[in-house]
Amino acid sequence: MFCEKCGNKLDEDAVFCTKCGAKVGEITNNLKTEKKDDNEIKLSVKPKFKFAYLTLPSLIIWLILIALFAGTIEAAEAETGVFGVGLTIGGIAYAIILAIIAIKVAVQKKQYNHLRYDFYETKVIFEDSFLNLSQKEVKYKHIREVTMRQSFIQRWFNIGNIILYTNAETGIDNGISITNVENVHEIYKKIKEILNT
């Protein structure tokens, strides 16, 4: 059980919060009297699929590995006197890698089209309906922290990540991570405004 005011973990028989002193259940009772209409979406956030950001790093790594592999084979060819094998193997490897990357990009693009984060009056709902159907609802009273992160490369592409941390006891899946948000600073401010109202 958690304190509804500050999120502190409480004993099951607690009457008051040991951290903030709030009476257990008092906030819930007050909310019952001022029931809110919670079916209007205040903000909808969809991650942005940026082809270059998502594919270039893996493509560059694979091309370097294949070039090193082909160079090793060519060195072996020079020693044995048999030529053309390295070029053939390198060409086949390039074709296979490009096919794998194309499939990965197609699946990622489809995945991004089905991701959605809807912010309501008192909750946020995450939905993913592509390969696996997934839905997660988190009440704002359980969100303890909101952070925004942007790597160097994400800043270059004008995207970033927003993480909503919750009071969950486990480190696994203890919140909602919204990745590759376009105009992340603006969306971050809007999310904080919604959470603080």
Structure explained in plain terms:
It is a single chain. Strands 1-2-3-4 form a 4-stranded antiparallel β-sheet. The chain has a 3-stranded antiparallel β-sheet with strand order 5-6-7. Helices cover 43% and strands 23% of the residues. Residues 27-35 have low confidence and may be disordered. It contains 5 helices and 7 strands. The chain has 197 residues and is of the alpha+beta class. The two termini are 24 Å apart. The protein is elongated and about 85 Å long. Strand 3 and strand 4 form a beta hairpin. Helix 2 runs antiparallel to helix 3 (85-114). The chain folds into 3 domains: 1-35, no CATH class; 36-49 and 117-195, Roll (PH-domain like), CATH 2.30.29; 51-111.
Strand content: 15-25%
Note the overall shape. elongated
* CATH class category name of the largest domain: Mainly Beta
Task: Please identify, by name, the CATH architecture of the largest domain.
Answer: Roll
Adjacency order of strands in the biggest sheet:
1-2-3-4
